[in-house]
Structures are given as structure tokens and as C-alpha cells.
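Researcher: Quick one. two chains, 466 residues in total.
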Amino acid sequence: MRTINVSEITSNIKEMCIEANHYLTEDMDAAMKKAVQTEKAPLGKQILNQLQDNLEIAAKEMIPICQDTGMAVVFLEVGQDVHFEGGNVQDAVNEGVRQGYTEGFLRKSVVSDPLIRENTKDNTPAIIHFEIVPGDRVKITVAPKGFGSENMSRVFMLKPADGIEGVKNAVLTAVKDAGPNACPPMVIGVGIGGTFEKCALMAKKALTREVNQRSDIPYVKELEEELLETINKLGIGPGGLGGTTTALAVNINTYPTHIAGLPVGINICCHVNRHSVREL
Amino acid sequence: MIINMDKYIKAPISDQDAKELRAGDYVYISGILYTARDAAHKRIYETLQKEQELPIELKNNIIYYMGPSPAREGRPIGSAGPTTASRMDKYAPRLLDLGLKGMIGKGKRSEEVQKAIIRNGAVYFAAVGGAGALLSKSIVESEVVAYDDLGTEAIRKLTVKDFPVIVVIDSEGNNLYETAIKEYQK
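Model:
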């Protein structure tokens, strides 16, 4: 048994919210740099160059990469031998988000009720996903999610007979509909299988996988590569203003499902695919 | 093939400038922009329904669909990139009919908005989505002029210098999102 004070959760999450909103992860940064070299459209290249300048200014002057600093999505993988002390873990996460968004000059974009719509003024509550895993460590992933791309995300409850072609069509439909709204170049997280909510959660989690890391499952890896190639032939391009860089990666996760179903969740992310990962 | 022209214009925008801009033009705006997004548009709309006076002048002005992150000390504004324009589609035609000449955002617009742009000789610009740090450097001053209680969604009067945008829908109804994509479709 290992004891962790929840104040450690708070202080780490605070720093991670600020970090994720000012610096891209290495894999995302490399993918954005590579895109500048490979983009064929002159205007597309110009936009990708502006995005390079944007990243530089963000890091150097501590101005968030994007003004939509997102709703804070937090994945907590908690080792089953961990004992928390010092308070409620959920409160500790929200306190970290509150401190990070307030002290880090991040935008407060959360409303307390979906219809009454009053801003909570500290970007809480976070969306928290807990997972119990073996061991005595705690892995925290903070993934602030902007809503330009979140709004273009979809869940399709396909029929088993739709098969892999149905999955491809679903992904392409979502990407085409998203177009310029989702701030391309996008990263596409896909969850295939499970249930209605499981496929959406897998899609969200797929966005936190490194963009240059393909699936371990051979057919899924092939599907990721084929979809990326097809998406980049749609012509949408950087900013949706035409070009050959519409997506940087398609990350797919799968899970067993029911004999009657083929759920597909597609979570679209913009080029500011933010996440910060730490292990306590 | 679209020929991209670099143009420099003043805001508020003259009727003539608005009419002459073409989809694909790369435009640098200097002057005054007003920010308004979802909540401010809802209030503007309700104010019009009640036939009351609006807190800002619409005639020949440009609205920037944007809600900034907070400014650090010594800076006029925080990160300041465009939000998705289609959420304002419900309100935009009415505002265009009342004299609004330009909108800056990102993403597709509805048929109704496109028609209102043509009818009023107006223009829809895109700023690069997700480039909020870079775009903030073209904003010289920022002042909340209405709906302060809305926080980031308040109406701000921005003074901008060479603020970079691209014409997406022009007064003739040409739409860069439609034409540019076709060029690179395989």
C-alpha cells in the first residue's frame, strides 16, 4: 500500500493545465513541423507557417496556443494499492483545474448548466475518468479539449453487416462535415466496438496516444494508415482553405462488442491536440 | 485557380471596399473591430426583439467572433483567435440587414447568411483557427464596451493593426471553402 496526499494531485493538475495550453507534446510538434514541408498548397503552407509562428509566440510569451483553452478532461489511472489521504480526489482534481485556469490566465469556458448557461468563472468542473489498474502508481493525463472540434464529433451505431466499409464511411462523413470548423489539420480519435458510451470514451482516449504511434493490431494499423491517406485526399487542407494536410493522424482503439452491434465513436481534435501526462 | 491578392483595408469598412473584396484575398485590417460570440449575439437579438437600442453601432462595422483568454499584465489581451461562425448563423442575417458589413470567424456559413451577405454587399472573413497567440499580436487595444457580466463573451472594442484574415465569402457569393477544396481533391 502506498499513501498519496491529494494535494499532490491538485498541484500537478494545476501545472499540467498550464503546460498543455502553452506547449505541444513532442510528437505533435514534430508532426506540425513535418506538415509544413509536405503541404502542397501555397495558402496551406502559409497557414502552417503561421501556426509555427503561433506556437513559438505561445511558448516564448506565455500566451495560450488557442484562446479556447478547453474543458479540462482528466484521465486518472489509479493503482489499486494506492491509498489517498487529505480529502476527496474529485475535489482535488477540480481544485487543480481551478488554480491552473485562474493563475495561468487560461480562459474560463465552462457553464454550470447546459441550458441556463451561467459561467462558473474557474473552468470547473473537469470531466474526470477514473480507471483502477494494478500497482501503486497514479497516472494523470490532462487533455484540455476545445469545442470547435468537439462539436464536430460523432457516434454512429452501425450494424455488424456494415463492417469495415461502414466504419470507413463513418469516419470520412465526420471529417467531411467537420471541414474548416474543426481547425484542420485535425487529429482523429476513433473508438470501434464496446457500447454507446464506451466507443466515445475510447475515441477520446485515442487522442492522447502519440500521433506517430500506430495500433499494435495489424488490421487496425492498416486501417489507421488507409484512413489518413484517404482523409488527406479530401482537399480540405489547413484551415479548411484547401490543401493536402487535412489530418495528422488517425488513432483507433477497439474493444469487444455485442453480437447485434458495431458502435463507432469519432472524436475530432484540432491541430492543438493538447495533453500532458505525469505519473505519481 | 484562385489568385490570392494581398490587400490592406480600414475598419469600419467602406461599402466600396466590402464590395471589391474577392474570395481568396489575403487582407490586413487596421482600425476598429467589435467582438461578439454566442451569448452576446443572443442578447443583441433579444434587444432587437424588444425594439431597444443596441450597445454598439452596426453600420459598416465588422464583428469578430472571438472570446479571448485573460490578458497578462502589460498586454491588451490574451490569446485571441476566431471561434466557429456557424453558431451565429441564426442571428447574422438580421445584423447584416441592419448594416453590419463584415464578420470574422472560422468555418462554414448557412445558405441564409450567404444570401444576406450578397443582399447587403458584405463579406465573411476567416482568421486562422487555433492561432490565437499570433493573432493577439495584431491587437493594439481592447476595451469591454457592453455585457461585462458575460466575461470572455462580453462585447469588446478592439483596435487592430494589420490583422490578418482571408476572404471566404464575398459580396458576389463566391465561397473559398468550396472552391479551394476542389482544387486539392483527388
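DSSP finds eight helices and ten strands in chain A.
Researcher: Thanks, that's what I needed.
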